[in-house]
């Protein structure tokens, strides 16, 4: 069995360059690859095209990359929690491609499974469908959406093994699952890394065939984007 473990995040990100396209898992601040984002900031990689459901918040997650003007283009679905994102978008500093959330997930999944494109009803008759092929199936119109292309997919899991098998916890499964294997190279950071063979095969969400590099992360903050509690 191939050992895909690397010693740390520095080794895991070997080969990243300016101008690349990255998929980044997570939903809000849930399930984001904190160590990888921090290393991208440290490396100063710039002119990034980032495919991610959202852009974090001003002082955490992908918001760090926005603060340092490292992202050139965001391909996202929900972007409403980041003031710096809004400022850069409205000023023209940041190119933004808004995509329906389900479409974004399926375009990642198409890339993951080797499909060149998918047909979806979402966006038909709107600006989302402008310039794209449309087709009727069983009396309903669909838009042809090409699969995403990315140089790296960065995902975060709760537990993994040295063969690259991954288990997510709760809603952290979100966009991490369809992005694993969707880029040319998938890097997974995990909270707990165990030897191959120790994970229950019935509990594995993503098989190791989709992962090229895996490492154990550290010092997770796991911030909560919106904390809401019931009044006493």
UniProtKB/TrEMBL annotation:
InterPro entries: 3-oxoacid_CoA-transf_A, CoA_trans_fam_I, CoA_transf_BS, NagB/RpiA_transferase-like
Gene3D superfamilies associated with the record: Glutaconate Coenzyme A-transferase
Keywords, ordered alphabetically: Transferase
One GO molecular-function entry: CoA-transferase activity
Top-level taxon of the source organism: Bacteria
Family: Belongs to the 3-oxoacid CoA-transferase subunit A family.
Name listed for the protein in its UniProt record: 3-oxoacid CoA-transferase subunit A
Species lineage: Bacteria, Pseudomonadati, Bacteroidota, Flavobacteriia, Flavobacteriales
